[in-house]
Amino acid sequence: MNTVQTVMILAAGRGTRMKHLTDDKPKPLITVCGNTLLGHILEKVEKQGIKNVVINTCYKGDMIKKEALKFTNLAFTFSDENEALETGGGVKNALPFLINNHGENGFFVLNADPLWDEPTLSVLSQLQAAWDPDNMDILLALVPMKQAFGDVPDGNYFIENDKPRRKKEGETNIPYLFMGIQILHPRIFKTALPNFFSLRDLYDEAQNKGRLAHIVFDGRWFHVGTPEAVEETENCFFKDN
């Protein structure tokens, strides 16, 4: 097994769709049932037994660092950005930190705004078990649309011949949604330009090469992207767990 020992959390964005909730703090520090979004995710990382955590920061980055450093069992590296570099640019910018923290054979990348329950194995364990860097460059965690709650975007993936395929323009009734949780191999960034780009560009490249893979998550996923989604998540997720 190729053990993945490093996690990157994407925490550079302000989260303007949260409106007034991010006037005085960044989106990952919004509180849901007594804990911040970042705190909930770091608890899952800690429970997984992973020690190496890289977090990119931009808007009110010092607040992100202060919250993270409460987790004294984790070893943090912070990748500061003068302006947010989007998902791909953020990971590319942090790549030296990731490789130096045992990420040379792959590393987890997690968005900072979803929450999820775990009725069986943790999603990180499921990704770990499926990760095969000899035959894949990117491994995405997908969730069926019927298991997605909160501020839910449109579905974005089909599964065809046991491979994920991103939706094309005009397609509807897309059955799966990317959870913002994945394993990436650092080789995919060799030809990527620095600065602003989306990881989605690299997903499409891996798909075209037949090196994009997936797992289907068996729990519920909550996208906490708006004030209304905070309330829905508190009323649904945490009262049931």
Summarize the structure.
The protein has 241 residues and is α/β, with parallel strands linked by helices. The protein contains 6 helices and 14 strands.
Walk me through what this model shows.
The protein has 241 residues and is α/β, with parallel strands linked by helices. The chain has one domain: Spore Coat Polysaccharide Biosynthesis Protein SpsA, Chain A (Alpha-Beta Complex). Helices cover 26% and strands 27% of the residues. The chain has helices at 37-48, 61-68, 86-100, 123-130, 199-208, 227-236, and strands at 6-10, 31-32, 35-36, 52-57, 75-80, 107-111, 114-116, 138-144, 148-150, 157-160, 163-166, 176-184, 212-216, 221-223. The strands form 4 sheets. A 7-stranded mixed sheet has the order 5-4-1-6-12-8-13. Strand 2 and strand 3 form a beta hairpin. The two termini are 32 Å apart.
- The CATH architecture category equals Alpha-Beta Complex
CATH superfamily: Spore Coat Polysaccharide Biosynthesis Protein SpsA, Chain A
Overall average pLDDT: 92
The counted number of beta strands is 14
How big a fraction of the residues is strand?
A: 25-35%
Number of domains: 1
Strand order across the largest sheet = 5-4-1-6-12-8-13
CATH topology value: Spore Coat Polysaccharide Biosynthesis Protein SpsA, Chain A
Radius of gyration: 17 Å
